[in-house]
Design a protein that fits this description.
- The chain has 13 helices and 12 strands.
- By secondary structure, it is of the alpha/beta class.
- It has 2 domains: 158 residues, Rossmann fold (3-Layer(aba) Sandwich); 170 residues, 3-Layer(aba) Sandwich (Rossmann fold), CATH 3.40.50.
- The strands form 3 sheets. A 6-stranded parallel β-sheet has the order 9-8-7-10-11-12, with helices on both faces. A 4-stranded parallel β-sheet has the order 3-4-5-6.
């Protein structure tokens, strides 16, 4: 979202710069190639308080008039820097509904006092921000995340007579990938599980795969630079998370024509999908039921076609940059070019 906003908000009347708290990564290089200035503030750890001064100096030196920070660490840094500069508007973004670590929400509660407004991608995040960081509802603006649907036009996957079930995301306990592994182990027939992403839970997931004796039917693809490459390799996306801020991969899958199975009434996810219309929902913590749901959907071509058609329409009507970017421009007070 930082990359896309930085690139899409630019016009002759708007100067955009991006700062990252630590060192530069792939997103920074992409922005630099596109002509966006990126400054790495080189924080050595979360306790490197010198980063606050460096951020304040950057704001003054570049004559920045609006600072838009993303996620709790950046929000805290921006909040502290706001006390060192004058006549600068500070806006923050919260993108999660995960209750833990609880100290993140306490830190966000303090940081939010230094912000003019808080942008969140869903009503679920709004509720979490109100409940856990005590942010007044009137201070919160809901603007959904977005993609360009045309960038997700992928060719039909060349069939190998195998049904590829995919997970795309970081390997973190909140994603509940071991439950997907357990459900997958109950499937019979020509199924393959493709896991795209990295994270601290990879070891536990690998042990679960070995325990269920399905190693020959599971592939770890590691971290990916573009979701299109992953979506082109799967027939079904399963997102078993217990919480999401938004679930960007959901709208990416909809745009790519990949049907979705996810959990029932999950924060963040429930703001994006329509059960039975753009995705199938089920009880993820019942692996047998999840396995049955996967089998039923992959044997119902009419239902898959319905989900794909409705999903693409939903993305174009609610989650495309054509719809969302004007919301950001109005919020930031930027006239359309």
């Amino acid at each position: 979202m930082v990359r896309e906003l930085a690139l899409r908000l630019r016009d002759p009347s708007v100067h955009i710069e991006v700062a990252c708290l630590a060192g530069s990564g792939a997103v920074a290089e992409t922005l630099r190639v596109a002509g966006v200035a990126v400054t790495a503030l080189s924080a050595r750890s979360v306790w490197d308080v010198a980063v606050f001064r460096r951020l304040a100096e950057l704001i003054r030196d570049r004559e920045i008039d609006t600072v838009f920070s993303f996620l709790v660490h950046a929000n805290v840094a921006a909040g502290v820097a706001s006390q060192m500069v004058e006549n600068v508007r500070f806006i923050q973004s919260i993108q999660t509904t995960q209750p833990n670590p609880a100290w993140h929400w306490k830190a966000q509660a303090i940081a939010s006092r230094c912000a003019e407004r808080i942008i969140v991608p869903s009503e679920s995040v709004s509720a979490a921000a109100q409940d856990w960081s005590w942010i007044p509802r009137e201070k919160i603006a809901v603007i959904p995340n977005a993609i360009d649907p045309d960038e997700f036009r992928i060719p039909n996957r060349v069939g190998d007579n195998v049904i590829h079930i995919g997970f795309i995301g970081r390997l973190d306990p909140v994603k509940r990938v071991p439950l997907l592994v357990e459900a997958f182990a109950k499937l019979e027939g020509r199924y393959h599980l493709d896991i795209f992403g990295e994270g601290d839970e990879r070891g536990q997931i690998e042990r679960s795969i070995v325990a269920h004796e399905i190693s020959n039917f599971v592939t770890f693809h590691g971290a990916i630079s573009a979701p299109q490459a992953a979506l082109a390799q799967i027939d079904l996306l399963v997102l078993p998370s217990s919480a999401e801020g938004f679930g960007l991969v959901l709208i990416e899958a909809m745009a790519a024509g990949v049907p979705i199975i996810t959990g029932e009434n999950i924060p963040g996810i429930r703001d994006v999908i329509r059960p039975g219309e753009t995705a199938i929902t089920t009880k993820i913590d019942w692996p047998t039921g999840l396995g049955i749901t996967i089998w039923e959907l992959m044997n119902d071509a009419a239902l898959r076609a319905k989900l794909i058609e409705n999903g693409l329409r939903e993305v174009r009507e609610r989650f495309s940059w054509e719809v969302v970017l004007p919301m950001y421009r109005r919020f930031l007070g930027i006239e359309s070019p």
